[in-house]
# Entry
Amino acid sequence: MTTVPADLPCVRELSRTADGRRWLATLPGLIEQVSDAFGLFPGPPLHGGSCSWVAPATLADGTSVILKIGWPHREMYAEPAALRLWDGHGAVRLFRHDPVRHALVLERCLPGEQLAAQVLPAAEALRIGADVLRELWSAGVPEGRPAHPAETIETLVDMAGDWGDLVAERMTRLRPGYDRGLVAEGARLLHDLPASAPREVVLHGDFNPGNILSSGGGWVAIDPKPLIGDPAYDVPPLLGQVADPHRQADPERTLRERTALLAAELDLDPARIAGWSVARKVESALWRAHHGREDEGAADMAVAALHARLL
Ligand SMILES: Nc1ncnc2c1ncn2[C@@H]1O[C@H](COP(=O)(O)OP(=O)(O)O)[C@@H](O)[C@H]1O
Ligand SMILES: [Mg+2]
# Structure
């Protein structure tokens, strides 16, 4: 069995960078090593995310699990710490962890369908997401040191501040044909929003509807990139990717209504949701420009402009 076929999304995505290619070269060995160490038998990989290799697997006692081996990068190191904190409430349970090889053995969601793939009225899908977010945010923030220092959950103040600096630096250096005023607004929001947060929670960090799976009659989150900070930060990927609001007849009105719905469900200020939508899209646009994908970044800027009308 080829454990790493060339058409896997993570292979296609990570082949674009030297760092990604180095990790991909070690991946077949990592799969063998962690399978031996954990005593599990992986099946063929899932055609899922772009930053990790994920496969269903069976433990020696027959338990059905998921084996996930992640490409190491800053945003992923605290995934096990957050999953331990949530302890199966709103997120999948973590059974085993190898911090050196960045391998996780996770509870397997069954049927495991993505919220992104459901044919549901938008309001219903958004409420499902909001229910999961409320449960995650209710866990409180961890006290004491994590099991491994690298697993410390970073603060949104630090992370978004670094992104704000990068946005400004990349704009000056690369000069992409983006709206300068909107880029400056995005950088300002990345610096200002975290510091004015009305409360702080452990954030999921990548709460898109592909990371919300059906499990035993309910819904849980997978794949966190956790941070500690303003809850409104978690809303934009849900808002922007459920029943694509940008393809509706009147995208601005659709976004306004859905932002209001999520703000009411989650007890948040709609302007902070709009602010994070702008900030995250501007950050993404400059990241793409930095990786030679200015055109894709221009699409992010168009979305940022739409959200800016809600500020
Ligand atoms: N615990 C799980 N149960 C069932 N399916 C899973 C589980 N974890 C991941 N998957 C599947 O694998 C895909 C990729 O996993 P994910 O953790 O999102 O990786 P990535 O960081 O690459 O996005 C998911 O979209 C989902 O379809
Ligand atoms: Mg994912």
The mean pLDDT is 95. Residues 9-108 form a domain with the Phosphorylase Kinase; domain 1 fold (CATH 3.30.200.20). The longest helix spans residues 18-38.
